[in-house]
Automatic annotation (TrEMBL):
It holds the Pfam family Abhydrolase_6. This is Putative hydrolase or acyltransferase. InterPro entries: AB_hydrolase_1 (IPR000073), AB_hydrolase_fold (IPR029058), AB_hydrolase_sf (IPR050266). Keywords: Acyltransferase, Hydrolase, Transferase. The lineage of its organism: Bacteria, Bacillati, Actinomycetota, Actinomycetes, Micrococcales. Residues 13-245 form the AB hydrolase-1 domain. Residues 432-461 are annotated as: Disordered. GO terms for molecular function: acyltransferase activity; hydrolase activity. The keyword Hydrolase applies.
Length: 461
């Protein structure tokens, strides 16, 4: 049961632990977490295998799929778990996994997709302690002491030591000899999503000084935050700050993008949805980077297009799509609809000319702006390099582009109640509908779309 004091979680955090640690390393973070966040710790090494990054990603994705509720989620990866997180997120955004809802990540001293920068003597020292089935308690205590900036509280120290002792030493050996050395940068590629990286000042190889260079190629949006007086074990050394950053990251995402309802997320994760469709919608669901420099238009032209889009395609309360920046990306990629009226320049040129013209006559009063839009739609205007008729044609195309970009977002599809994307599927036969009738839905469709066909039959019986 939920209440005002215990609200229904808005977002899940899947926590991927570091070497030697387990799902319990998320406990202190979960205890300090904002009640809007559900923190789920995942065991990565309990199977004793860590030689392949994809093997670890398989384990993580299997458990994420079992715990996902269809709603938005963040990935929080620590150390080894940070490297696994990169591969997990790449596969989620590729649409190959039966999971939907990735919104961003908070990474804690993450190991990079490239080979981990570990000194040879340190690697040899760690291998020497992992020759049996498990590390001894003394070895575990030495490992914890060497990775923190200051002693942990008794409770956290015991929890960390117990976790290290529980982990199979075979996973340590796999990671030190193979997994940490793997160069997965080609598999991961560039992950253009909201990411915050936390790193301790007292962590040598994966600390605050090293992280900016380690993450820059993989995460173009990454913000690195230094953690003074913190070593490598951030989930134990600074759980309150980790929890606070998770909440801050979620707030920024929630304010910067519309949220896909969980029931629709479950449909998108199902076998009814083709991999290519899931890939496209997973990437469209990510919050826009509103600080990104335009690629085809000038910053002033983007601002004019934003002003137009706010009146032409009002999105209501909550997070909104940056339609202008997405149209700019389409123009830069040359991926318009291919239609151009005679006398209108190419899309990229026409947008520049048209938006400069709009800016030159754009009034300050909102009602005057609405009147100006009506006039531009009906009468057009003689623009720089375009006749009034050509301008009117371009303005019609621009309105269509803005609406098309809005409608392509999965939250917009949910908002208008369109689930026609769920007719491809990954099975042997294409998916479809058994019955189409007004006010009825099939059991797999979101409940808001009508009365379930099965329920109708039960009522009739």
């Amino acid at each position: 049961m939920t209440s005002a004091a215990n609200p229904t979680p808005e977002c899940t955090v899947f926590f991927l632990p570091g070497l030697g640690l387990d799902a319990g390393s998320a406990d202190a973070v979960a205890a300090a977490a904002d009640p809007r966040l559900r923190v789920v710790g995942i065991d990565l090494l309990d199977r004793g295998r860590a030689a392949s990054l994809d093997d670890l990603a398989d384990t993580a994705l299997e458990r994420i799929a079992a715990e996902a509720d269809g709603g938005p989620f963040l990935v929080c990866g620590h150390s080894l778990g940070g490297k696994v997180a990169a591969r997990v997120m790449a596969r989620l955004l590729a649409g190959t996994e039966p999971v939907f809802g990735l919104a961003g990540a908070v990474l804690l001293a993450p190991s990079p997709p490239t080979p981990e920068p570990m000194p040879d003597d340190k690697r040899a020292e760690m291998l020497a302690t992992a020759q049996g089935e498990h590390l001894s308690r003394e070895e575990a205590e030495a490992f914890i002491a060497s990775n923190v900036a200051a002693p942990l509280s008794d409770a956290l120290h015991e929890a960390a030591v117990d976790a290290v002792v529980r982990q199979p030493a075979s996973a340590w050996r796999d990671w030190l000899t193979a997994g940490s050395r793997e160069d997965a940068s080609a598999l991961v590629g560039t992950l253009d999503l909201p990411v915050v990286v936390l790193a301790g000042d007292d962590d040598d190889a994966l600390g605050a000084d090293a992280q900016p260079e380690l993450v820059s190629k993989t995460y173009p949006r990454a913000r690195v935050e230094r953690m003074p007086g913190v070593g490598h074990l951030l989930p134990y050394e600074a759980p309150e700050r980790v929890a606070a950053v998770l909440a801050e990251t979620w707030d920024a995402i929630r304010e910067g993008a519309p949220i896909v309802p969980a029931e629709w997320g479950r449909v998108l994760a199902s076998t009814r949805v083709d991999v290519a469709v899931r890939r496209a919608l997973a990437n469209r669901a990510l919050a826009d980077d509103r600080t990104r420099a335009p690629r085809a238009l000038t910053p002033a032209q983007v601002q004019t297009l934003r002003a137009l889009s706010a009146l032409l395609v009002p999105q209501g309360d909550g997070g909104t799509i940056d339609l202008a920046l997405r149209v700019d990306a389409l123009l830069a990629a040359g991926s318009g609809d291919g239609w151009r009226t005679a006398g209108v320049p190419s899309d990229r040129v026409a947008y520049g000319l048209g938006l400069d013209t709009v800016a030159s006559l754009w009034p300050r009063d909102v009602q005057d702006q609405k009147d100006a839009i009506v006039s531009l739609m009906t009468d057009g205007v003689i623009a720089y390099g375009m006749t009034a008729d050509a301008f009117r044609s371009w303005f019609e195309d621009a309105r269509n582009d803005l609406l098309r970009v809005w409608l392509s977002h999965p939250a917009s599809l949910a908002r208008i109640g369109f689930d026609g994307f769920a007719i491809g599927g990954t099975g042997a036969e294409p998916a479809g509908w058994a019955t189409i009738a007004p006010g009825e839905r099939e059991p797999w469709e979101p409940a808001e779309l009508g009365e379930s066909i099965d329920d109708t039959k039960e009522d009739a019986a």
